[in-house]
């Protein structure tokens, strides 16, 4: 069944919720239910056809000639992922449930939002040649499901958003994902304010070479009295890729938060994805845009597994399409992510950039495209191509490993943006 709805994460009292989905018109739902039998001349179904605009915008066919995400694990910190959906079967590892105890005994998770996001990242389709159903940006990547939010339809939602014991589930989820070997962490979630534990968890993840991607938020049309929309966390932390959403014309979607934390954007309107029980959804939000960018990060990490987070971030920013006038604005950041160009830029950085980390830094004969833990020194030979964000990213990574500076910066930001809102 195809369902249509916003299906994005919003702030609850302490953490997050999901906007309920509603069925589409009966005629459209009936048509979608039989999509597998409605093949077009190319052998694809209506679901895959509904993804065409996203596939073309990200230039995925070109990117897939180089990388499909094999060997990479993307942790989806969300409401849980259905591992049995036909478009995700065999790709999902069900990890910890940090919301355990919020729902009454015997009540299982709905796993709506999380399944949707996972399918956009690593859906592999089904049927002959995998040509039916949802294809994700990195169809050969693995998904680690880490449950850190409840849908607002779940009976434990109120308990989850009010009990102090659940306050730092996101921080715990980040650390767990890192320790389980995640290469990329997708956080299509957000909240109003940061915590000390979340800051520390993000520093830890970056120090281990993990790329973090988060939603900029869906309060872009909310009046703030200033020249920006609310900041949200974890997207607004330095070192995290904050993702805005674009509409069909690749302009900032009206709901997408606009502020100086936004790094890049991706399509976020009428995005086809999977739901539990072999359902399909069409939705909108920065959540969906975030999942698409996480998929692109997974393609880069598959091709260059040792590339450090600042260089992955630079590849995403330097290669973006539809750049705003002047090269950057607070709505779409450095532009709309392009998977094929991001891979090309990552290859250029891997060739022309030396990154020395840990003990290997003492050996000048060891060529590295990036590295895991340890102080990161980046030497860029091609100075003409250094973007504004390259410096920001490098500084953020250094700050992530030298916590004093980051904490000072974030304390000031939290004070300034106390009323910032969520995705």
What would you report as the Rg, rounded to the nearest angstrom?
20 Å
Distance between the termini: 26 Å
- Work out the helix count: 13
CATH superfamily: Peptidase S8/S53 domain
Main sheet makeup:
7 strands, parallel
CATH topology: Rossmann fold
Main sheet strand line-up: 6-9-5-10-11-12-13
CATH architecture: 3-Layer(aba) Sandwich
**Average of pLDDT:** 79
Helix content: 25-40%
Name the overall outline.
globular
Number of separate structural domains = 1
Low-confidence stretches: 5-43, 355-423
Strand content: 15-25%
Briefly summarize what is shown.
By secondary structure, this protein is of the alpha/beta class. The chain is 31% helix and 18% strand.
List the SSEs and their pairings.
Blueprint: E1 2-4, E2 9-11, E3 16-18, E4 22-23, H1 26-33, H2 46-50, H3 52-57, H4 60-63, E5 73-78, E6 92-97, H5 112-122, E7 124-126, E8 132-135, E9 142-147, H6 157-160, H7 169-179, E10 184-187, H8 196-207, E11 211-215, E12 241-246, E13 262-267, E14 271-275, E15 279-283, H9 286-303, H10 309-318, H11 339-352, E16 353-357, E17 376-380, H12 388-401, H13 403-416
Parallel strand pairs: 1-15, 5-9, 5-10, 6-9, 10-11, 11-12, 12-13
Antiparallel strand pairs: 1-4, 2-3, 7-8, 14-15, 16-17
């Amino acid at each position: 069944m195809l369902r249509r709805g916003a299906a994005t994460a919003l702030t609850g009292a302490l953490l997050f919720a999901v906007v309920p989905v509603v069925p589409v018109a009966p005629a459209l739902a009936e048509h979608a239910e039989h999509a597998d039998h409605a093949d077009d001349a190319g052998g694809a179904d209506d679901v895959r056809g509904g993804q065409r605009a996203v596939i073309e915008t990200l230039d995925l066919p070109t990117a897939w000639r180089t990388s499909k995400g094999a060997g990479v694990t993307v942790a989806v910190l969300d409401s849980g992922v259905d591992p049995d959906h036909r478009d995700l079967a065999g790709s999902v590892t069900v990890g910890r449930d940090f919301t355990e105890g919020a729902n009454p005994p015997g009540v299982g998770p709905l796993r709506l939002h999380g399944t949707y996001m996972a399918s956009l990242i690593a859906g592999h389709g089904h049927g002959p040649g995998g040509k039916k159903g949802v294809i994700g940006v990195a169809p050969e990547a693995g998904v680690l499901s880490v449950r850190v939010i409840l849908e607002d339809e779940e009976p434990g939602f109120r308990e989850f958003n009010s009990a102090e014991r659940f306050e730092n589930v996101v921080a715990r989820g980040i650390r767990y994902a890192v320790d389980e070997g995640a290469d990329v962490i997708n956080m299509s979630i957000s909240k109003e304010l940061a915590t000390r534990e979340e800051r520390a968890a993000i520093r830890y993840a970056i120090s281990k070479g993990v790329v973090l991607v988060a939603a900029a938020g869906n309060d872009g049309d909310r009046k703030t009295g200033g020249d920006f929309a609310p900041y949200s966390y974890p997207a607004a932390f330095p070192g995290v890729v904050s993702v805005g959403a674009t509409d069909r014309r690749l302009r900032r979607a009206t709901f997408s938060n606009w502020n100086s934390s936004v790094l890049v954007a991706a399509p976020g309107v009428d995005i086809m994805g999977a739901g539990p029980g072999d359902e399909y959804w069409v939705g909108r939000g920065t959540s969906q845009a975030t999942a698409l960018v996480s998929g692109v990060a997974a393609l880069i990490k598959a091709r260059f597994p040792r590339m450090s987070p600042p260089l992955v971030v630079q590849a995403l920013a330097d290669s973006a399409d539809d750049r705003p006038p002047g090269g950057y604005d607070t709505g779409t950041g450095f532009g709309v992510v392009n998977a094929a160009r991001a891979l090309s830029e990552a290859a250029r950085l891997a060739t022309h950039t030396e990154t020395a980390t840990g003990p290997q830094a003492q050996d000048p004969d060891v060529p590295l495209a990036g590295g895991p833990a340890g102080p990161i020194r980046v030497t860029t030979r091609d100075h003409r191509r250094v973007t504004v964000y390259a410096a920001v990213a490098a500084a953020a990574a250094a700050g992530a490993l030298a916590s004093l500076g980051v904490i000072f910066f974030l304390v000031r930001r939290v004070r300034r943006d106390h009323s910032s809102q969520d995705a």
